[in-house]
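Progress report, Aim 2. The chain analyzed during this reporting quarter is listed below.
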Amino acid sequence: MERKGSNTAVVTKQVVATALKTATTTTREEHALRMRYGATFDKKAALPQAHNGNEELGDELLLIEMQLLRGLRAHQGKGVKAATKSAVKSKIAAKLSKK
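Predicted structure tokens for the chain:
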């Protein structure tokens, strides 16, 4: 009996990550490959554009994004002020309860 040679290949997460940059896969396939091999996204990479070359739509999406970010920052700022006010109120209440 003759022994058959085995052709094994080692696939690393770096190989998968570089292959996904050039491959044309669906979102679901890419997600499955990233989960299977532990390949992560480049955190500095730009997100894909959803306007497909339509400049008016791109401008409108940018405006919506800016409004959402402004609202998020305003909401986060209010949370800090509310926490500070409640801390001040609790100190006053503690001092009044001691009297």
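The chain has two domains: 11-41, 60-99. The radius of gyration is 27 Å. These observations will guide the mutagenesis work planned for the next reporting period.
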